[in-house]
Design a protein that fits this description.
Layout lengths: L1 H22 L4 H24 L15 H8 L9 H5 L5 H23 L3
Helix pairs in contact: 1-2
Amino acid sequence: MGAAGTAFGMGLCGWLLEFLLKTSQWDKLRAYRVIFWMYAGFGLVIFGMVLCLSKACEIERPPQVDIESASVESGKKVEGKKNFFMASLPSFSRQSKFVVIKLCLLFALESFGSNMAPL
């Protein structure tokens, strides 16, 4: 959805810039300033819309179990994520981890290749 919005915005700005330069006979600096302020205004509107979102649009996370108290109460050793960094990562299945790693490698390769190609 974000990529479609970006493409639509870029197309609309290009069309509006062409209209201002050719049909309305504006100078380039004035036309680019209008485009800039319109783009900035739309960004502020979107930012305001994001701030108005409620917690109802968020995914509910399962309750976190305290590892130390759970192991003491049940008498069993509970395995969990060890530090803050690992605790902040989402839980993926083993199969999903391989897919994510492959996609990351493909995107890195594509980014490297597009930077090496001359424009």
